[in-house]
Amino acid sequence: MERLQKVIAHAGIASRRKAEEYILAGRVKVNGQVIQQLGTQVSEKDQIEVDNVPIYQEEPVYYLFYKPRGVISAVSDDKNRKVVIDYFPNVTKRIYPVGRLDYDTSGLLLLTNDGNFSQKLTHPKYEVDKVYVAKVKGKAENKQLLPLTRGIRHEGVKMAPAKFNILSNDAKSQTSIVELTIHEGKNHQVKNMLQAVGLPVQKLKREKYGHLTLAGLRPGEYRELNKKEVSQLLELAKKVKKK
Question: What pTM does this model have?
Answer without folding.
Answer: 0.80
